[in-house]
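Inputs:
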Amino acid sequence: MDTVTYPQPAVAEFIGAHFVPVKLNLSDDAEAAQARELVPLWTPTFIITDGRGREVHREIGYLPPEDFLPMLRLAHAKALLATAQAAEAIRVLDAALAQHTQGEYVPQLLYWRGIVGYQAQHDRAQLAEYWGRLQREFPQSTWATRCSFFKPS
Amino acid sequence: MVQQAIAWQHDLAAARDRAREERKFVLVDLYRPT
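Outputs:
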């Protein structure tokens, strides 16, 4: 992460704009003690919380820049949703979907865009639009499977 | 253009305080040196 992903300007810029970044070395007793409440199972683990420590997203394992940035955008949107900022979460997800058109996180971005739109506007059409797109464009995705019960039309 | 470096902190409680003050969220990277 330190040699490939974090030096990317877009990654550093996004982190600086939206997050307070914390690195805890689990081989260091004092830092491992701080991390204990987060229940680390493996490293690297990336955890996104609000300012009260409430977790909204977690990832385990190395992520290259092309995956780490959309993951951060997704986590940012989930954090906004969790703190009653759904309109802003929609803006973040729309920007992410405009910027990322392929890659591991695009199906998950579509999945959450449907959810956030539905929760913000109580509008089934939001689910139909984004979950329908997910089912059409990424039918093999696990995220399409997770909404496979849903019939867009 | 000067490349922006990530200003990592190593104090979780202080990071949470700062996140609340700045209306940001907290990104935690748990790692072991390789």
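Remarks. The CA atoms of residues 3 and 121 of chain A lie 42 Å apart. Chain A has one domain: 9-146.
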